[in-house]
Amino acid sequence: MLTAFGRAFKTPDLRRKILFTLSIITLYRLGAHVPTPGVSYPLVQQCISGADNSNGLLGLVNLFSGGALLQLSIFALGIMPYITASIIVQLLTVVIPRFETLKKEGQAGQAKMTQYTRYLTIALAVLQGTTILTLARTPGRLFQGCNEELIPDQSIPLILSMIIALTAGTALTM
Q: Residue 51: which of 147, 145, 149, 151 has the closest Cα?
């Protein structure tokens, strides 16, 4: 086992791919702990320790985000908007003739479909980020039984910058 791992590091191309993968995993794990600007991180930690969010829909979505959702970190949305956009584009391939034509065009068509998927991902990230922040702005909605104000300053420019930060986190993850 260790010999095979050692041989993998001796091959330059494989070593580069392994190191790239490990650096991406490290970047994501670090970003999962960087709070979104404007969120009171100590209050979030207090609510996490006091509330049981392991069950229910938010617990499931939190699982897919690597625990970043309920931390309200910059990677809170994770890869979920991209997965949703991919599913929507695949389903639209059946409904919209132009998408079906693009799918049959080969490499160039697939590149165009990927571009549409990425645009839809950004739109969904804005929508989902707005929804998460709406839940976080109202005490007791994001964390059952926690009535702390997680976003003390609820000015419009700050909320917009928070939505941009969540969307940028999704774009970086994508």
A: 145
* Chain mean position to CA 161: 16
CA neighbours within 13 Å on the CB side: how many for 1? 0
Q: Provide the sign of the torsion angle of the four alpha carbons 43, 48, 49, 51, taken in this order.
A: positive
pLDDT digits (tens, 9 = 90+) for 106-133: 888 888 999 999 999 999 999 999 998 8
Report in angstroms the alpha-carbon separations of 20 from 11, 13, 27, 172, 174. 14, 11, 10, 15, 15
CA angle 120, 61, 51 (to 5 degrees): 140
Asked if residue 133 lies in contact with residue 159, where contact means CB atoms within 8 angstroms, the answer is yes
